[in-house]
Amino acid sequence: MLKRIPPLLGPELLATLRAMGHGDEIVIADANFPAEFLGPTAIRADGISATDMLEAILTLMPLDDFVEEAAIGMAVVGDPDARQPIYDLFEDIVRRHEPGMGFATIERFAFYERARQAAAIVQTGESRLYGNIILKKGVIRPDAA
Amino acid sequence: MLKRIPPLLGPELLATLRAMGHGDEIVIADANFPAEFLGPTAIRADGISATDMLEAILTLMPLDDFVEEAAIGMAVVGDPDARQPIYDLFEDIVRRHEPGMGFATIERFAFYERARQAAAIVQTGESRLYGNIILKKGVIRPDAA
Amino acid sequence: MLKRIPPLLGPELLATLRAMGHGDEIVIADANFPAEFLGPTAIRADGISATDMLEAILTLMPLDDFVEEAAIGMAVVGDPDARQPIYDLFEDIVRRHEPGMGFATIERFAFYERARQAAAIVQTGESRLYGNIILKKGVIRPDAA
Amino acid sequence: MLKRIPPLLGPELLATLRAMGHGDEIVIADANFPAEFLGPTAIRADGISATDMLEAILTLMPLDDFVEEAAIGMAVVGDPDARQPIYDLFEDIVRRHEPGMGFATIERFAFYERARQAAAIVQTGESRLYGNIILKKGVIRPDAA
Amino acid sequence: MLKRIPPLLGPELLATLRAMGHGDEIVIADANFPAEFLGPTAIRADGISATDMLEAILTLMPLDDFVEEAAIGMAVVGDPDARQPIYDLFEDIVRRHEPGMGFATIERFAFYERARQAAAIVQTGESRLYGNIILKKGVIRPDAA
Amino acid sequence: MLKRIPPLLGPELLATLRAMGHGDEIVIADANFPAEFLGPTAIRADGISATDMLEAILTLMPLDDFVEEAAIGMAVVGDPDARQPIYDLFEDIVRRHEPGMGFATIERFAFYERARQAAAIVQTGESRLYGNIILKKGVIRPDAA
Amino acid sequence: MLKRIPPLLGPELLATLRAMGHGDEIVIADANFPAEFLGPTAIRADGISATDMLEAILTLMPLDDFVEEAAIGMAVVGDPDARQPIYDLFEDIVRRHEPGMGFATIERFAFYERARQAAAIVQTGESRLYGNIILKKGVIRPDAA
Amino acid sequence: MLKRIPPLLGPELLATLRAMGHGDEIVIADANFPAEFLGPTAIRADGISATDMLEAILTLMPLDDFVEEAAIGMAVVGDPDARQPIYDLFEDIVRRHEPGMGFATIERFAFYERARQAAAIVQTGESRLYGNIILKKGVIRPDAA
Amino acid sequence: MLKRIPPLLGPELLATLRAMGHGDEIVIADANFPAEFLGPTAIRADGISATDMLEAILTLMPLDDFVEEAAIGMAVVGDPDARQPIYDLFEDIVRRHEPGMGFATIERFAFYERARQAAAIVQTGESRLYGNIILKKGVIRPDAA
Amino acid sequence: MLKRIPPLLGPELLATLRAMGHGDEIVIADANFPAEFLGPTAIRADGISATDMLEAILTLMPLDDFVEEAAIGMAVVGDPDARQPIYDLFEDIVRRHEPGMGFATIERFAFYERARQAAAIVQTGESRLYGNIILKKGVIRPDAA
């Protein structure tokens, strides 16, 4: 336990967030996501919801304002325009930490391909379906150091 | 995620519980416990309470009925007879899974020494002080296989 | 040994099943299958039949209902329509655990190619020829957690 | 699978038996034995009985005729003279492969200490209690090569 | 770079501080300290002063209030009562972060022995002699979580 | 040393033969063959002839009867029809263990390419030129187990 | 600490510079650069400016005079002709150590691609944006040895 | 130190030469050659000249007489027909050990590409430019064993 | 294969002999010796006799003339004065390579203890009992370099 | 190759010297010294004399002025007062780099024991007997930084 650090973030996850640079991505995955065999390091967070994890990560990590979308979810299989309740929760958390930013979705297998390039995948215990989100890290500018 | 398995138990913890044999011990540690540098493998469970973890583990793992005490907590430093609220919660969970078994405590540094011999230490996010417990694994008898 | 867990599933196999996510595949291979040099981790189960292993795995692991076929065997070399006795046994076990699902076969070298992408290959001691089966993991839905 | 080799013996176990020399010991352990954290390499044989494993190993490995006892079981805790049914089965198999040799037992914790020095521990799925046996390897003499 | 985290703390050091528990110690060492061959992991911080590193670490890590002295320097060789200028700087930083706590020194080889048990040694570029300090981690209480 | 096992086969080679499955290949290479940097694990057998090694391996390992040629040598460079004395020795040993099977050769660089895919290469001390042979493992059928 | 060696260069970085040969490249990266997941080894230099690191490295390492540009920065995103203040500082340091050499820039993603081939990436704590530079190592001629 | 072995050849280099087979190549590189990041294992020989190393290696290793050129140097950049003094020294040593063989050169980047496939690169302290040579190993024939 | 090097000595054994210094010991062990689990690296030489291996090693390695006995065998168990035929063969080979040196024996378990400190143990296929010998390496003097 | 760095010092040795701190020791060993199996990392410098290596190391590394003797050789076996020619060479080099410091010797096995605690052992090709020296690293004071 440390001061200022959300307790959900253990040593390995904290080191990963600190090691990431501008444009690197991290995935928060739900309990059914195929995280362990996809390629990137999988960091376990069994029993933790994806929304609590998102809240904890965005407390420390800035999102990328060089791109259109820095927070990307997985679209419903077979119904790309369907809206899942967890999407709104994700979007609220993102907007609270990064005013002006939004939340978009991409198709399931496109999501997998992008996740393969991530710095890490955090496998939460999120039991709600489609509880997955990719986050693209931004920069901290000199005056914000 | 698997059927029958409490979702709190991730791959590494599940493998550890399965690999343990008669008399091997596992420690559920609170968020302040010095787990990572004590010797045994530390398995992270940040954000999870010690009582939820105890509940999950005892769903699968039998306690040792060859010894007097198979569930051991840490006594309050400087006041060995003091009773902590979490002791009662630990005791209730143990009794529910293993009728007739109890809960005892040992002194802080004796607890550390015993923890050094454990198969693993599960570092939870338990924020209540003295939220630590050692569990000694029992046998599964032929007719219970 | 643990409560609720079929004893055939050792620590490494249990961890693998727990680590797999939606769409990941595991192969149960017979004693002649070239498992160790194909790429994925090979988990030994010498002396165990493929049918007993299938029974044990499906006790814990759901199959994927997003796809047509989630349980796939190897077709007879040179006679793709031939029916092997072990196919029926596989199919019965699958149907008992996953009502409504079936069993299909693919050609030998196509089977090898698909096995190369598996999370793991369980090499049993199955001595009956064509005693191989690929299993695609499904999701556990929120209400089934 | 190989000709002449009992199929229960997988690659790692076969290599271990071959690598052992005069006086080295191997332990066949039951399903409750604390094999994985004792020190020596643990070789899994989940689902296999200790007696089938003993039969397979003695098909290839000679016992040591330089010592009094080359096959040693674990005595019943608290009743060192008690006879377990599996003792007779162990003894029969030993005598069939090594005429003139017997079977003795030592106390539980002495057994653990001796097992710590073994070349390996084979963890079977033996569910009968006290299904453990230490085997001391003998020599193959020039005329038997 | 992350929000709230002093930029001097890189991924490995941050993970170490997070992994440490109650009573674990970390050493901030000067540029001449024999850090790399003493035993604990050495974390490089070439070019950084010991006082800047102390400031950064105490921003996140609480000191142990269960013991008399939680911040310990190295006494001057051959003159244990001599006061070095850097001692005052260390003491000021400690007191600012942990009101009521002090700073003590121990003899050079006693310092080495204690450092051998540390969780890690941070080798700074501190060029002032005696620029070494051991820090003992404290707890974060439930209401401070 | 073990009963029933040709003494030339050490632990690593024995494990490799046991681990190989239907269609996997192993190379017996002469002393000049570029075995160590080709890719597959190289198993040393310095001082042993290729013919003695072939004899030992075929005592345990069945050849593949699903293919035309399961034992393949290297053709003479620049004279593909030339017959080397060691070819006849190879062929005799193969036929003695696998009645009805033959021995063919392929061009030097084709041999290298195929050897790159082998499970292992056994580097013998064979000093006769062209003392190389690839062996393709067969199946053991249920009634032969 | 060593004589003649700038103290900013720790053991790993010093070894890397020494191991590099003619044409090998090293990257000095700012605090926001995605260094850790790009491929090459990342060497941490948190808290150190890119200009101080450049000064230290060029004290020991010659630049390549076989090519047009041996010191390459990252162009401003969206404005390739824009001049950043740190460019001038980089150029001054380069010219002081390597009279007659200059400083050029390439586009952000071209910079990343080239950095993927580097011998190492030194991640400094440089907080000024565009504080990145690739250095191509030159030769030391016989008379300069 | 061993009898018969040139003392310049240390354990790792000796093992490499012994492990190489017909057609495998080793590179003797000068002090400026980019050996460590090219791919093959780099063996250090700081302070040793390329000609002394060539002499030592050819004392033990035969060159390949199946090819036109078994000893290949690097041509002068921009002047492929230029003759360097060290070429003559290389050629003399080659001819003394392998009567009838010569010495050729290839272009710098072609040399690098070929070096990437070598069994190892020996990085000497050769300070003369173009002090690099690739050696292709030959066979030892039965009567020469 | 190399010129001047006895072909029985493969890469690893050659490197070990070269790496050994004054007073280091190597063990040539027979096929029944417990070499693999004793501690030192075991180098396989299955199928090779201990006397051929001794001949090969002494061709390169000098024995230690600072001590009384630099070649030590294992005495017969229970009959320490008994003479084994292989002792004479060992002694002849030693005397041929190192005129004036002899051969002594020590008790079985004393031999094991000494072997635990060896640089390596070469496990031959020697089938004659007591075919074990410890060799202590000597120096090569300047004039013999 | 780097500017200011003696070319004899390769990447690993340079990193070791840089990593060493006050009081850490390094051994320069002759070609017969048992360096590889003593415990510390052995760094090869085959073909280099101990005196050239000493010259190179002392160009960068200060000796310890907190102790009586910071440069220690090995005394002649059986004649501790005997003077070896190389002792004078060692002493001259030490005095040139560290005016006022001397050179002492200790008995052979005491030398070995001390060498076991060293940061590393540099195995040179020194063929003169007793060409061994232990060096204890000193500090670089602030004004010398």
From TrEMBL, chains A, B, C, D, E, F, G, H, I, J:
SUPFAM superfamilies: RbsD-like. InterPro entries: RbsD-like_sf (IPR023750), RbsD/FucU_mutarotase (IPR050443), RbsD_FucU (IPR007721). Keywords: Isomerase. It comes from the Bacteria. It catalyses: beta-D-ribopyranose = beta-D-ribofuranose; alpha-L-fucose = beta-L-fucose. Pfam families: RbsD_FucU. This is RbsD/FucU family protein. It comes from Devosia honganensis.
